[in-house]
Design a protein that fits this description.
Elements: H1 6-16, H2 18-36, H3 42-61, E1 67-69, E2 74-76, H4 78-104, H5 110-128, H6 132-151, H7 157-188, H8 193-196, H9 206-222, H10 231-238, H11 241-266, H12 271-291, H13 297-317, H14 321-347, H15 366-369, H16 371-385, H17 391-405, H18 409-434, H19 453-471, H20 474-480
Antiparallel strand pairs: 1-2
Helix pairs in contact: 2-3, 2-5, 3-4, 3-5, 4-5, 4-11, 4-14, 5-6, 5-11, 6-7, 6-11, 7-9, 7-10, 10-13, 11-13, 11-14, 12-13, 12-18, 13-14, 13-17, 13-18, 14-16, 14-17, 14-19, 14-20, 16-18, 16-19, 17-18, 17-19
């Protein structure tokens, strides 16, 4: 690699990756600021403004043609900007929801917001990576920050246990991922994703496909696809609820975006299509079936998240441009649905243990006591189940239709059937909220609270977006233009 003109191109590269620089600098500023102004009211404002500025910048870059920065290490514009906007938008909404939540549980510490910013930096690098080195750097930056965010409430054993499990299993999957990168480099002689396919002959060697298999294990772990999902229910249950929402959306978006690039650009042929289809089936069936028996709502949403990873894999298994664009659209809708659902659960949390011991039945009747939370939750549950005219319906259509067009009709049928199964446990939430007799002396009813205006605004925004993306195909057409 000729680096003789590195400094000459630096200014242009920095201008094209301005959101990454803004968030990274803001994270460093927060660390120093919080050291001298512990628990200052300005701390979340700094994080929120930085993420919002990055979000606006990436929105403006979506119509731009895709380019590269830092000697091909990162992609800019187009699909990379779309993914970055999703990650940053998730970060903005998560910070807004986290401010009253962390204050209520007595954990409004500056380090939490700094870790959200640094995790976002890792996600931005991962989602826009054009080289296996930057994929690994982004993945590990994101993961280390998420380990810390999962367990930063040290007074709770559930949070600490979740972080420890996440760290151990995450470190194990990192070994697979790194060994896969080594095998791919050994068989192709390059780590540039765009150049990888051109270096191979006859569809790739055994070493190459062994590297692909190990790399796929690492990605499937990060997106919580079965059978690499073991960490997900425990981590989602024990982590602070608003952090769980951020973790379940932004990190999955970044990891899937990186996987889509590798599948679309680096891997020849269709050998991996059948493999992804098998993982999709296992993930959809296992996630939805086990979610049926969950009494803890955070564990239920964790298994729901696993199932939704399976739906995205259906789109990827098609191996077509329509499948990849549909997966990106689904990730956008999924982000909106899950941020909203976890936002509602965070406001209804009453057990002082980050909801780890809070059963769904303890929320009986809350739909009438807090109508805003009840009816917004109804929209999120209907959308997660795939009911029209909400975004969840178009999202499922966007990933199932390409599978049908690619001849994977059986896979789409399984996806539809498992979606029908999911309707049971999603609607069960609404039955508890609106139809089950309430007990004014226990559960969420025993705690009197006022819904913060900022949290209400986030929930209403998510509802509006779900209706908007459920009745227009603008976003589907936009993602289709990337491939």
């Amino acid at each position: 690699m000729d680096l003789s003109q590195a400094y000459a191109s630096m200014n242009g590269d920095m201008a094209n990756t301005m959101s990454l620089l803004i968030v990274a600098i803001a994270g460093l500023v927060l660390v120093v600021f919080d050291a001298f102004n512990n628990r200052h009211a300005a701390t979340p404002w700094i994080a929120g403004i930085a993420l919002t500025a990055g979000f606006v910048f990436e929105l403006s870059r979506i119509p731009a043609a895709e380019g590269i920065a830092y000697y091909g290490m990162l992609r800019t514009g187009g699909s990379a900007a779309f993914v970055n906007a999703l990650v940053l938008g998730s970060g903005v909404l998560s910070v807004i929801l986290s401010v009253p939540y962390l204050k209520r549980i007595g954990q409004n510490i500056g380090e939490a917001y700094a870790m959200i910013l640094f995790a976002t930096v890792g996600m931005l690098v991962l989602g826009a990576a054009n080289n296996l080195v930057t994929v690994f750097v982004g993945l590990e930056t994101m993961s280390i920050c998420l380990y810390i965010l999962t367990g930063f409430i040290r007074s709770g054993s559930g949070s600490t246990e979740s972080a420890f499990k996440y760290f151990l299993l995450g470190a194990f999957s990192t070994g697979f991922f790194l060994y896969g990168i080594a095998l791919l480099y050994g068989s192709t002689g390059t780590m540039d994703i765009s150049a990888m396919r051109a270096t191979m002959a006859d569809g790739g060697s055994i070493v190459f496909w062994a590297g692909v298999a190990l790399l796929l294990v690492g990605f499937l772990f990060k997106v919580s696809a079965a059978p690499f999902h073991m960490w997900t229910p425990d981590v989602y249950q024990g982590a602070p609820t608003t952090i769980t929402g951020f973790m379940s959306t932004a990190s999955k978006t970044a990891a899937f975006a990186s996987l889509i690039l590798i599948l679309n650009v680096a891997l020849p042929g269709e050998r991996w299509s059948a493999v992804l289809a098998i993982f999709a089936v296992i993930t959809m069936v296992l996630g939805n079936v086990i979610a049926l028996s969950q009494s803890n709502i955070k564990r239920m949403l964790a298994y729901s998240s696993i199932a939704h990873a399976g739906y995205v894999l259906v789109g990827l298994a098609s191996g077509t441009a329509a499948g990849y664009s549909g997966a990106l659209f689904y990730l956008m809708v999924y982000t909106i649905m899950n941020i909203g659902a976890f936002g509602v659960i965070a406001l209804l949390e009453w057990d002082n243990k980050e909801g780890s011991e809070q059963s769904l039945d303890s929320l009986a009747g809350m739909g009438y006591k807090k109508p805003l939370l009840g009816w917004t939750m109804a929209v999120f549950m209907f959308s997660l189940a795939g009911f029209p005219p909400l975004g969840g319906f178009l999202g499922k259509w966007a990933v199932f239709a390409p599978a049908v067009d690619a001849g994977l009709v059986w896979l789409a049928i399984i996806g539809v059937l498992t979606s029908a199964v999911s309707a049971y446990y999603y609607l069960r939430v609404l039955v508890v909220f609106f139809m089950k007799p309430e007990d004014e002396q226990s559960g969420a009813h025993a705690v009197d609270f006022v819904i913060p205006k900022s949290s209400a605004a986030v929930l209403i925004l998510c509802v509006v977006l779900l209706f908007f993306f459920g009745v227009t195909t603008y976003a589907i057409d936009l993602t289709a233009s990337f491939f």
